[in-house]
Amino acid sequence: MPAPQVIIIGRPNVGKSTLFNRLVGKKLALVDDQPGVTRDRRFGDAELLGLKFQIVDTAGWEDEDAESLPGRMRQQTEAALETAEVALFVMDARAGLTPLDEEIARWLRGTKVPIILLANKAEGRAGESGLLEAYSLGMGDPVAISAEHGEGMGDLFEALVPHLEPLQVEEEDEEFDEEALLRGPLKLAIVGRPNAGKSTLINKLLGQDRLLTGPEAGITRDSIAIDWEWTQQNGEVRPVRLIDTAGMRKKANVVEKLEKLSVADARHAVDFAEVVVLLLDATRGLEHQDLKIASMVLEEGRALMIAINKWDVAEGASSLFQGIRGALDEGLAQVRGVPLLAVSARTGKGLDEMIKAAFEIREAWSRRVPTAALNRWFDDALNANPPPAPGGKRIKLRYITQAKTRPPGFVLFGTRLDSLPESYKRYLINGIRRELGFDAVPIRLTLRSPKNPFAKG
């Protein structure tokens, strides 16, 4: 099924081609202050906060004889409307309504295609009067935008979703790309305090003394990336890029300039990783510095795992594991249930399970949920636990979309979102993790309310 079509209609020089370029993400349409630059229909693949459609730029509507060039351009616009799911009727808020705008509006009201009225160039106060005039067209509330500056795109998304969301299709090309990404090397960084056994662990995986190790803390100073192949139990070979990093001490203890550079390099390595394993020392347990490192990894948006090393010499293993599990859940409240494994870099215990879990969490970190499935879950979540009404005023949550992956990022649209309690945001984030297969990966939730076009800024 082809992507749904959205057509842009309006008189000359109201910013149709600028809007077209904004939605396709590149300058495909020629833009100039001179009216009539666009003469034929132009098609482009557009994406707005995860909503995908084909956008059609049309010539400026002019009231001319059908045999003239402007008249033939108008006929192209009329033909384009026949295959469109939605029409974006663009007027210039700074210039205000013109008789030609009113004529186009009369014609559009006679069509069966849903119309969204856009008041372009509405940034600042110069567009306020034109925005008010737009209400007189009888086409509902105008959406205030600035195609040139990208303002109002969230409100445009909200207006388009009811018409386009049921028509969304999963593109095979995108699925192929995501699969290819997951077939690529797993970028796995090993971080932790000095002398936790990071280099020893990597040497054990490699089966050779590739990295210098010893009882002295701080031997590793540079982040070292090593390409390796992991053989699964079924015999399949998976590529891995292992990244060994310098130990991260408390800032107060980082006094030497070289060590400061090493810690900065370790942070840099986290930026380039997909999954980060925080290695703990079983003989020392979980310390405050470990929680700081874990929080830093999550703030960077990386998938996090915790591995307790030196398990072969741990005392009171069961109580130690449960104690660390409880402390992690309390200290990392933003991501409960981070994978926790017991390993031994010296004997190799648990390393196979660690690599297997790293591939699984990368898959969750890269997951994209179709908009339709996401909003079905969203409706169920709202019915099960409606948002509160602070001061008796209802918070209205309308739509949610996944804007990005790696880490997963979601945009929630509604009104009075500044009053939405943090506890309700956590309820939604935990539901996304639990019910949509994101497990313990960091999730970003952005709140987006329609802007008041008359607010003084």
Topology, element by element:
Layout: E1 5-9, H1 16-24, E2 42-48, E3 51-57, H2 69-81, E4 86-92, H3 99-109, E5 115-120, H4 128-134, E6 143-144, H5 153-164, H6 172-183, E7 186-192, H7 198-206, E8 224-231, E9 237-244, H8 257-272, E10 275-281, H9 288-299, E11 303-309, H10 317-331, E12 340-342, H11 351-365, H12 371-384, E13 396-404, E14 409-415, H13 422-436, E15 444-448
Parallel strand pairs: 1-3, 1-4, 4-5, 5-6, 7-9, 7-10, 10-11, 11-12, 14-15
Antiparallel strand pairs: 2-3, 8-9, 13-14
Binding site for GTP 1: 10-17, 57-61, 120-123
InterPro entries: G_ENGA, GTP-bd, GTPase_Der, KH_dom-like, KH_dom-like_a/b, P-loop_NTPase, Small_GTP-bd
Function: GTPase that plays an essential role in the late steps of ribosome biogenesis.
Characteristics of this structure?
single chain; Rossmann fold; GMP Synthetase, Chain A, domain 3; six-stranded mixed beta sheet; 13 helices
Q: What is shown here, in short?
A:
Helix content is 35%, strand content 21%. The protein has 13 helices and 15 strands.
Helix share of residues? 25-40%
Strand order in space, largest sheet? 2-3-1-4-5-6
CATH topology of the largest domain: Rossmann fold
Q: Could you tell me the radius of gyration in angstroms?
A: 28 Å
Distance between the termini: 44 Å
Helix-strand pattern, N to C?
EHEEHEHEHEHHEHEEHEHEHEHHEEHE
Would you kindly provide a written description of the structure presented here, covering whatever features stand out?
Belongs to the TRAFAC class TrmE-Era-EngA-EngB-Septin-like GTPase superfamily. EngA (Der) GTPase family. GTPase that plays an essential role in the late steps of ribosome biogenesis. Residues 4-168, 186-366 form the EngA-type G domain. Associates with the 50S ribosomal subunit. InterPro entries: G_ENGA, GTP-bd, GTPase_Der, KH_dom-like, KH_dom-like_a/b, P-loop_NTPase, Small_GTP-bd. By secondary structure, this protein is an alpha/beta fold. The protein has 3 domains: 5-169, Rossmann fold; 176-365, Rossmann fold (3-Layer(aba) Sandwich), CATH 3.40.50.300; 371-448, GMP Synthetase, Chain A, domain 3, CATH 3.30.300.20. Helices cover 35% and strands 21% of the residues. It is built from 13 helices and 15 strands. It has helices at residues 16-24, 69-81, 99-109, 128-134, 153-164, 172-183, 198-206, 257-272, 288-299, 317-331, 351-365, 371-384, 422-436; strands at residues 5-9, 42-48, 51-57, 86-92, 115-120, 143-144, 186-192, 224-231, 237-244, 275-281, 303-309, 340-342, 396-404, 409-415, 444-448. The strands form 3 sheets. Strands 2-3-1-4-5-6 form a 6-stranded mixed beta sheet, sandwiched between helices. Helix 9 links the parallel strand 10 and strand 11. Helix 12 crosses helix 13. The radius of gyration is 28 Å and the shape is elongated. The chain starts with a strand and ends in a 9-residue tail after the last strand. 35% of the residues are buried.
